[in-house]
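Entry type: protein chain
Record version: 2
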Amino acid sequence: MVHGDVTLRNIIKMSNGKYSISDFDSSYYKLTNGQRTYFGQHKISSSGCLPPSAFTILNEEEEKAFEIYWKSRATDKPTTWSSSGATYTTRSVRRGVKIRPPYTRMKASKSLDVWAFGLILYYMATGKHLFSVDKDNNVCSADVVEQILGWDDNAGM
């Protein structure tokens, strides 16, 4: 299983003093019938816990296709961020839609949770978020998306 939305808000202290994770409405289960499960198929995850691979840059044509793809889900579509002519979004998909999104779909993977857990460990060690997020753990601006997309093995060194 992939939780898909590992954030500080979803870690709770139980009455027995142990910690547990909650909020499984973004989770993904491995299907045994051979059907693939893609990231963002259920509920859209908090963008502040997503790895660089979950973000994409949309060109002008893809922006139009994005609006068509998410047209009937205005209150439930992924956020877009724009800066200096570039538009960014997460690679979420809709369940039960015949058309494909204007970006490569991303398979649900445990690496999503590993990245998010690393962000929590960073916060616990420093008292700061690695990237600027709002109270709901969503990315605040296109500049932050650019920081996330620019992340590599040498970041922070």
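Comment: The CA atoms of residues 3 and 27 lie 4 Å apart.
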